[in-house]
Amino acid sequence: MSEIQNSLIALKNHITEEIIGQDVLVERMLIGLLADGHILVEGAPGLAKTRAINVLSRGIEGDFHRVQFTPDLLPADLTGTEIYRPQQGTFEFQKGPLFHNLILADEINRSPAKVQAALLEAMAERQITVGQATYKLPTLFMVMATQNPIEQEGTYPLPEAQLDRFLLQVKVDYPNAEHEKTILRLVRTEARQATQKLKKSFTPITQATLFEARNNVLDLYLAEPLEDYLLQLILATRKPEVYGDDLASWLQYGASPRASIALDRCARAKAWLAQRDYVAPEDIQEMAFDVLRHRLILSYEAEAEGVTTDDVIKVLIERIPVP
User: Could you confirm whether domain 220-319 is CATH 1.20.120.450?
Assistant: First the structure.
């Protein structure tokens, strides 16, 4: 195992010590970093979503900013705005929170369409436009957005074009009893210390190390038959009738080529974090849920029958043979 891989594994272990009972979320955040993509997290309040990305930001060389999305938020509250300086008689651009490395967009579906459009440009193009000027965002840039599945009143559902920009949609659930007991003890310890700092033995990872890790992930071996299997999973969402009439009645629209790219990069990142030098079928199958669940559009028949996108993905995995 390389020194770079050791660094990322150490970071993962450190975060799981701080974020109890959310191992999947921790792994998906690291996969998002390694695959250079954004993450949409869905879960009830109080499940350590904010804490998770905060701990992650302290484990790497970069800065973090949290934005609480509300109906009265303006695009300039994200991008920044031009401020008039009367002393010089000129306008000066004041950068907004999007110019940080890690962004937590809390309750993203509470913001109106204009704000969502400003975030969409930042996520897709890694730049923002204010007036006639365009400004590049940092090379290390990841948005982790959250949605509350319980409360939908006063929200603005994200359009499909923006959902497709998210590399992964991760669902987080409540911790079990043993994990919650550990959480109680951890919080009591932190309350005594009054401050939350990285352990002295842990050195934050540099951005150069992270970028090199991304290159290592891209170089990971993926056998051609498995590459074809990956593509079959995506193509099956566009022509579901090939794999059954039930799938054809459930799916209205399938996944775009962005899904193929995302599944390829995420499966590689998962295998790399598992300290393997090759991608296995289970890497593709496990990541398929997080990559596809927000990209598939179900029909009215599926919704009437209570079928979810996860149900559709499970059926596809069962019916498409593994090479």
Answer: no
